[in-house]
């Protein structure tokens, strides 16, 4: 009887891990995918492939990492904080490759939305990419390279 009157509270959720470059990358990829307010299977698959290839993970490990990144993205700081972590810890060439990867996620669902492009521009700028490299990433993605 008391259980119905005073239901037990759900335990506090497990605390999120501190962002690392690996988690920041995944969270930014998720952020790009969700910029148009949809999160499609094609985008999830592309994120998993990028994480797997980038960090040499098996598919299940990449999916688990993505799931952690999804939770982190929902409760994490804004794009500049993630980007700063990557800018400080990751070489420019790798950040440039991240720009290419983000475009592949944005286009994975077959659409090209203004919200995604705005999010991409903000992330690429925060990563410290040059205008020329940002333009090249967009053009390569649109050509399907």
What is the H level of CATH, i.e. the homologous superfamily? TerB-like
Give helix % range: over 70%
State the end-to-end distance. Answer: 64 Å
Q: What spatial form do the alpha-carbon principal axes imply?
A: globular
* Total strand segments: 0
**Strand portion, in percent?**
under 5%
Structural class: mainly alpha
Using the coordinates shown, work out and report the CATH topology. Answer: TerB-like
Task: Report the order of strands and helices.
Answer: HHHHHHHH
The count of helical stretches stands at: 8
Average of the residue pLDDT scores = 85
User: Low-confidence runs (pLDDT<50, min 5 residues)?
Assistant: none
Under the CATH scheme, which architecture would be assigned?
Answer: Orthogonal Bundle
Question: What are its keywords?
Answer:
TerB-like; globular; single chain; mainly alpha
Structural commentary:
The chain is an all-alpha fold and 145 residues long. It has one domain: TerB-like (Orthogonal Bundle). 70% of the residues lie in helices and 0% in strands. The chain is globular, with a radius of gyration of 17 Å. The protein starts with a helix and ends with a helix. The model has no long low-confidence stretch (mean pLDDT 85).
Question: Helices and strands in order, then pairings?
Answer:
Elements: H1 2-5, H2 21-34, H3 41-55, H4 59-75, H5 79-89, H6 92-106, H7 114-126, H8 131-143
What's this, in brief?
With 145 residues, this protein is mainly α.
């Amino acid at each position: 009887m008391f259980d119905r009157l005073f239901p037990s509270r759900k335990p506090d959720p497990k605390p999120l891990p501190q962002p690392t470059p690996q988690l920041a990358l995944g969270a930014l990829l998720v952020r790009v995918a969700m910029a148009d307010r949809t999160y499609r299977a094609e985008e999830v698959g592309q994120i998993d492939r990028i994480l797997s290839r980038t960090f040499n993970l098996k598919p299940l490990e990449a999916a688990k990492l993505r799931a952690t990144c999804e939770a982190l993205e929902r409760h994490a700081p804004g794009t500049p904080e993630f980007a700063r972590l990557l800018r400080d810890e990751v070489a420019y060439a790798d950040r440039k490759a991240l720009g290419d990867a983000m475009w592949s996620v944005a286009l994975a669902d077959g659409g090209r939305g203004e919200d995604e492009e705005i999010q991409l521009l903000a992330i690429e700028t925060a990563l410290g990419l040059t205008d020329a490299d940002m333009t090249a990433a967009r053009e390569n993605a649109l050509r399907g390279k």
